[in-house]
Each structure stands twice: as structure tokens, then as C-alpha cells.
Design a protein that fits this description.
This protein is mainly beta. Helix content is about 0%, strand content about 45%. It has a three-stranded antiparallel beta sheet with strand order 2-1-8, with no helix packed on it. Strands 4-3-5 form a three-stranded antiparallel beta sheet, with no helix packed on it. The structure holds zinc ion. Zinc ion binds next to loops.
Length: about 100
């Protein structure tokens, strides 16, 4: 059993769950602010970003990460494992 940090979402996880089953990390969606800018354009901003002058906060939305890591297994046409679905920014072994 090893502990990892996902370099896309910075989540930390172990590759084996307490019940003994394998765990395959997939980055959760990122929560962002949905805002209407002064020119009436609607866009999303990271949570830590201050609202631009004249912008209106419309709410929070879940948005898929652009460089998502998904360790679930991709299969070849013959059913053999071809690797993980998407590597994202990678992972770092931390324990
Ligand atoms: Zn992740």
C-alpha cells in the first residue's frame, strides 16, 4: 500500500482502501464562481479569485478540470488493460 498526491487536484489518496479493494483516483470537478461581467459576458472564475469590478456573482458551479487525472483502466479491444484513462499532471508518491 502506498500514498500518493495527485498533481492535478492535489488530492491525497492510498492505492488500497481499508477494505482491501484497489482505489483508482479520478479528480473531482472543481468548484468555481459563475459571474456576469460588466459587459454582460457570463464566465467562471476560480474560487480564490476576487470579483472583477462591476461583476455579479451568479452562483457556484462544478466544472470538469482541464487536465483531469483518471486512473480507471482503459481496455484494448481484446479486453486486456491498455493503461489509465488520462494521466493528468501525474502523481507523486508521498508514503
Ligand atoms: Zn486528482
Amino acid at each position: 500500500m502506498s500514498r500518493f498526491r495527485c498533481l492535478t487536484c492535489l488530492g491525497e489518496y492510498e492505492d488500497v482502501l481499508p477494505d482491501g479493494n484497489l482505489y483508482f483516483h479520478a479528480c473531482p470537478p472543481a468548484t468555481k464562481k459563475q459571474v456576469k461581467l460588466l459587459d454582460q459576458t457570463i464566465t467562471t472564475l476560480p474560487l480564490a479569485t476576487a470579483l472583477p469590478v462591476g461583476a455579479t456573482l451568479l452562483g457556484l458551479v462544478a466544472e470538469e478540470r482541464a487536465n483531469k487525472r483518471d486512473e480507471n483502466i482503459k481496455l484494448n479491444p481484446d479486453g486486456t488493460a491498455a493503461g489509465i484513462l488520462t494521466p493528468g499532471a501525474g502523481q507523486l508518491k508521498i508514503g
